[in-house]
Amino acid sequence: MAFLAGLNDYLIKTYPNSAIDEAVASQGLYCLHLHGDTLMQGMVTANTTYDIEVTTPGGTRRELSKIKIKMLYAAEYAQHLQAHITIDEALQAQGLDPIVAVKQRNFIKNKTLFVLMREQEALSFTLLEGEILQGCIQSFSRYEITMLVNEQA
Predict the structure, then answer these.
(1) Where are the beta strands (DSSP E) in 11-126?
(2) Given 84, 95, 100, 106, which is the most exposed site by the fewest CB atoms within 10 A?
(3) Per-residue pLDDT reduced to its tens digit, 71-82
(4) What number of other Cβ atoms are within 10 A of residue 25's Cβ?
């Protein structure tokens, strides 16, 4: 089990962390990819248990359910990241919605994520609406996986 050495320490340190909390603290502009093929930019101003509040550059405030958020990243990376997102058109055509029921969601074990992160394995993630992201896991927490796309790694 040497391949899992450090997992417990890692989880203690990072498991409660949240990219959304970091976005709120930064007070910077972020891009949010939402279910329904929606892309919005704004400053994440609040993070509650099930929702976030986003203020757009025009000053409009929106409350968004976290279940609707597929991706979140600093707006300064938008052009670079969007150029690296490919689409699985067959999956996109299925019109899949967010999975609300926890028991129906797909899970990845912490010990699997930890080894992949530590080894910097190149991975492909395919989201429900067909977006494909390729890169390496930078970190993970209870609800999030942060990855570096190939040119950032």
Answers:
(1) 29-34, 38-47, 51-55, 61-65, 69-74, 86-87, 123-126
(2) 106
(3) 999 999 999 998
(4) 10
Q: For residue 132, what are the contacts with CB-CB under 8 A and spacing of at least 6?
A: 85, 86, 87, 88, 124, 125, 126
CA distance 137 to 130: 19
pLDDT (tens digit per residue) in 2-27? 668 889 999 999 888 899 999 999 99
Torsion sign (Cα): 118, 120, 122, 126: positive
Distance CA 148, CA 138 (A): 6
* Whether 45 contacts 55, CB under 8 Å: yes
Q: What's the mean per-residue pLDDT of the chain? A: 92
- pTM, two decimals, is 0.88
Q: Is the dihedral of CA 13, 42, 75, 35 positive or negative?
A: positive
**Tell me, what DSSP letter sits at residue 127?**
-
Which residues make Cβ contacts (< 8 Å) with residue 63, sequence separation at least 6? 51, 52, 53
Residue 29 and residue 75 in contact, taking contact as beta carbons nearer than 8 Å: yes
Name the DSSP letter for residue 13: H
